[in-house]
Design a protein that fits this description.
1% strand; 2 strands; two-stranded antiparallel ribbon; 15 helices; MetI-like fold; single chain; transport; transmembrane helix; MetI-like_sf; membrane
Length: 314
Amino acid sequence: MNQQPSLSRTQIVPKVRRRRSWKDWDLYMLMIPGALFFILFKYLPMWGIVISFQDFNPFSGIWKSEWVGLQHFETLLQYDGFWRILSNSIILSLLNLIFFFPVPIILALMLNEVRKRAFRNVVQSIIYMPHFISWVVVAGITYLLLGTQGGIVNEFIVKAGWEPINFLTSSDWFRSLIVSQSIWKEAGWGTIIFLAALSGVDPQLYEASVMDGASRWRQIWHITLPAIRSTIFILLILRLGHILDNGFEQIFLMLNATTYDVGDVFETYVYRTGLVGGKYSYTTAIGLFKSVIGLLMVVAANRLAKRFGEEGVY
């Protein structure tokens, strides 16, 4: 009898993969909106960094504008206020990293310890709500609370017999206000990722620890924290990639003439020189400079994380 020729592995594997792909077509359909978002709003706009090496003229277009090489980067480094803007950006990012980054982790650990599901859902809803409030409203609330004319906090201070404090016009208070606003608005929303990571912890680990006589603190230290350690490292690495990003809207709404020395960051400088001054090539070069610094920080942090035995981002 004639035997049918056997298929090699290189012929079988592609067929199996095609069958699995067709079987999971609905999952690929769900992926399409996200993929389109990144292609349209993240990858295609990257072609715009070309103008950072040009003296861009909107009427001439990208391909007909004059090439100037690294001139805009040299102008940035020679700008008198460059080091002030750089230091303000780094200091604000580090303050957020030190004070804001741990808060969602602490909140997630606290919520994970709540056994009454209804109460936990109510607390989660309350701490999530500020995320949906715009920075304009947050700034308005801050002015109502801390203003020297009619501010609720200053009214209590005056009634207590002290002098009113210029929270909004003092350089000493500006950074504290920015970090406090970020914590109030985004800390609750940041707990979502950590709660999702905690939901994957095997309950039998806690049961075994109880049998061994471990207290709640011991369970948190030896079971809960190790379960989300990789998530913490990944988010920390990604956050370091935005070391020079502080967000425009929040800073712009709280900034005034008396706090420029500590509050002027790259975003506000780009607004003044790019949108108001019309220096599109120069501000694009600033954006590229920030992106390169962020990329270097991610690569360095990822290598450091792997040295400590973590998986890292890639």
